[in-house]
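Amino Acid Chain and Its Fold in Token Form
===========================================
Purpose: to set a sequence beside its fold so the mapping can be learned.
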Amino acid sequence: MTTVRLPLFPLNSVLFPGLVLPLNVFEERYRAMMRELLKTPEEEPRRFAVVAIRDGHEVAPSAPGLPDRTAVPDSGPAAGFGDDPVKAFHAVGCVADAATVRERADGTFEVLATGTTRVRLLSVDASGPYLTAELEELPEEEGDESGPLAEGVLRAFRQYQKRLAGARERSLSSGADLPDEPSVLSYLVAAAVMLDIPTKQRLLQAPDTASRLRDELKILRAETAIIRNLPSLPASELTRGPTSLN
């Protein structure tokens, strides 16, 4: 078992390998994390782990009424996540490689990172200025029939986007807009479809690419059927162009 210890950045969203993650970092615990990452030479990866929050607050209460009226002030690396932070997070997350970490004049940070590798959360350490975690790297297995399943998901995803765009075929113009590699496609679709966090989390932690694609095919067919019967459903920004994997 290959394990690694990395800074931990919990979010109310799911990060997938290959997808870009922009962050506006303003809380002190995460500003401390970014200052530490900046000590890493530019030619080396500046890595941290992203996990989706199961139970807790992405932004810790910093004053009465912030971020909600019932909140009480809280501070520290585990603020908002209870006495045992590991229970507040989903068990599988994704390593992020920060290509850009830019400090603003007010001490906040603008960060642009890319998801790289899935990891399983083993333990969380709240003894420092920010959370760190012991993580087990999860390999991406292809599974059976991933190629044919990818072709089916691609067709279903195109139909889904067309329905969201009001059948005006402005979302995808050619096969070159989406990757052919099954695992890359599976993560792109998982990120692009409008789903709740538990469903996206289920796709992230699928045992292999084929299982993820099989699940996505069912989801896309169901979502497309719903949109077909609800023509007034508002379209997502994702229909305005293909999702970038930069």
Notes: The beta strands are 3-11, 20-25, 47-52, 92-103, 109-125, 132-137.
